[in-house]
Amino acid sequence: MGRIKLFVILMLGLLAFAITGLSGCGTIEGFGRDVQSGGEAIEDAADRNKPD
Q1: Whose CA is closest to 41, among 11, 49, 21?
Q2: For the segment 12-40, what is each residue's pLDDT rounded down to a tens digit?
Q3: What's the CA gap between 43 and 52, in Å, rounded?
Q4: Rounded to whole angstroms, how far apart are CA atoms 39 and 47?
Q5: What is the distance in angstroms between the CA of the first residue and the CA of the last residue of the chain?
Q6: By CB atoms within 10 Å of each CB, which of 16, 21, 33, 50 scores lowest?
Q7: Does this model's pTM top 0.70?
């Protein structure tokens, strides 16, 4: 009985970890896009303010 309970708890923990990891993928992807667009904005501002 104790082994089955331990197995169920372990599987639920792994399932929770997998769900959290998979949901984080979209967040990381969105964060990457935000950083990229911020970098592009800085690059554009630097190009506009270059000394002639």
Answers
A1: 49
A2: 999 988 887 777 667 777 888 889 999 99
A3: 17
A4: 12
A5: 79
A6: 50
A7: no
Please give the Cα distance from 25 to 31 (Å, whole number).
10
d(CA 18, CA 37): 29
Q: Would you place residue 1 in the very low, low, confident or very high pLDDT band (cuts 50, 70, 90)?
A: low
Cα 26 from Cα 20, distance rounded (Å): 11
CA dist 2 and 10 (Å) reads 12
Q: Which burial class, exposed, middle or buried, applies to 20 when counting CB atoms under 10 A from its CB (0-12, 13-18, 19+)?
A: exposed
Tokens matching residue 50 = 């270059």
Which contacts (CB < 8 Å, 24+ apart) does range 10-17 have?
A: none
